[in-house]
Every structure is written in C-alpha cells, then in structure tokens.
Amino acid sequence: MTRRFSKTPTVDRRRFLTRALQATGFLLLAGCDSLSRSDWFPQLLGKTENASEKVQRLLSPRQAMAKEFTPDDLSPVFPANGTSNPESEAYQALAKNGFADWKLEIGGLVHDPASFSLDELRAFPSRTQITRHDCVEGWSAIAKWKGARLSALLERVRPLPSARYVVFHCADPDEDGQPYYESIDFEDAHHPQTILAYEINDTALPIQHGAPIRLRVERQLGYKQAKYLMQIELVESVESIAGGRGGYWEDRGYEWYAGI
Ligand SMILES: Nc1nc2c(c(=O)[nH]1)N[C@H]1C(S)=C(S)[C@@H](COP(=O)(O)O)O[C@H]1N2
Ligand SMILES: [Mo]
Fold it and tell me: Residues with Cβ within 6 A of ligand 1?
C-alpha cells in the first residue's frame, strides 16, 4: 500500500513530528502532577523499549530473514521521505562530481580504520534483495536493493572486542544543525540482509533515496534505513552521541529497536 505523498517540505515534517511527540509526552504527563517530566518520561520510554525488544525477540528470532519479494511485486513508485536532497555545501559539491570524491570513513573501535570510495565499496561481497520498506508515517513500498554486505566491511576493519554498536553518520543536518544518524547492534550488523545499498531497482541510488549509499537493515522500520552515509563509527555505547538514544528519531522518542 502506497500512501499519496504530501508536499510538506521535509524539514517541516520532521519538526511537526517532533512537536507531535512532545505533545503526546505532555498529554501523558498532564494527569501525573507528582512526577516530574524529566524523571518519569524518559524512564517510561526506556521500559517500553526494552519490553518491545524482548517481545520482538520472542516472536521472531533476530537472525530470521525479512520477507523477500519478486520483481512482479515492485512498487511502481517508491516515495522519498525525510531529507530528499541534503542542503550542505559539502554534500552538494560531492553530488556535482558524481560522488567521485566521496569516501566512507569507518573508524572508532576498530583495529584498522579505513575509508572506501564508491568503487571500492562495489568491489566488496554484495547482496541483492527485494524487500518492503515500512515507514511509521503510514506507507510501505517494495524495491530491489543492491549493496555491500556490512559484515564484509566489518571483517575488513576488524572491530575491537569492546565494540557493541555500529553508528551511521549522515550528510543531512536538520534546520537546527542536528545531523541525522542511526545505530544498530552487532547482531543486526552481521545479518545477511544488512547492506550498504548503492543501487535501487538496478540503477545507481539517486539523491532522493540517499546517494551515494544508504543503510538497509531489513528487519526494522523506515527511519533506521539511514541515507547519505558519510561515516561509520564503532562504539561501545551510544550514550555520548547527540541525544544519547542511538538515532535522530530515537532522540525524539521513537524506539531504538524498530523491529517489524
Ligand atoms: N539521512 C537520512 N536518512 C533517513 C531519513 C532522513 O531524513 N535523513 N529519513 C528516514 C525515514 S523516516 C524513512 S521512511 C526513510 C525514507 O527513505 P526513502 O526516502 O528512500 O523512501 O529514510 C530514513 N533515513
Ligand atoms: Mo519514515
């Protein structure tokens, strides 16, 4: 089912959702005068998150494969959502040059920090998969993705034993300068369907879908599928990054484990 796509500017939509989430938090709190907003709300979110992650694990093991589809199932239109063209001068300069000067940096808790050009990423073991993308805003679309297996990249840079999460830093800050970012744990990072996609439907990933590469982590919702990847960082904890909850939308109240 594909939702008709609204023309609201994307940054406005992010802002609108943030306000909506804040409003929900406020309403929840309205009847609980004795509890402070700062003490109670984050704790509730934390508990919900853990509970839903446990339920998710019981219902379907994390190693299970996401459903794959056939070419007949491809959506005629795959909407673009969130940022559809990062405004930063640096990104625009890279795009103008067909991303020939773009490199993906991989660092943090690894033995061999490295950076890879698009051609180098294309030379890694790849995977092609037809999957369904589900956005919390109420639309889904099926596309064919091809990309480098994240597990192969990790093997190359050799994570240190203390590394627990893979953080994806993106090229698109919002209008307050807050960059989009996401994180996944090692279980998802090594899942066979977790790829750094450089193709959609047999063509080079266009800007609206995250050029030059975007994450596909197929067991999770749309906002985990970070576009415009610039840097990958291996960390022991996500607490010191931005709002500390492991992602741009997570910092605004969404769950970190967005299992489908
Ligand atoms: N860098 C970045 N990645 C992002 C977003 C974004 O705004 N910036 N939006 C997310 C959301 S909410 C969705 S549903 C998908 C949309 O991907 P698409 O534009 O290819 O449909 O990208 C996700 N990844
Ligand atoms: Mo989304």
Answer: 79-83, 135, 170, 172, 180, 208-210, 222-223, 225-228
Ligand 2 centre to CA of 218 (Å) is 13
Q: Where are the alpha helices (DSSP H) in the chain?
A: 10-30, 37-59, 89-96, 118-122, 150-157, 186-189
CA atoms of 234 and 154, how far apart (whole Å):
9
**Atom 18, ligand 1: which residue's CA is nearest?**
80
Domain spanning 13-252 has what CATH number? 3.90.420.10
Assess contact for 156 and 120: CB atoms under 8 A. no
The best mutation among 207, 223, 251 to test binding of ligand 1, ranked by most ligand atoms within 8 Å of the C-beta, falls on: 223
| pTM for the whole structure | 0.82
For the stretch 54-76, pLDDT in tens is 666 666 788 899 999 999 999 99
Domain boundaries, the chain: 13-252
34-48, 153-167, 190-204, 222-236: range with lowest mean pLDDT: 34-48
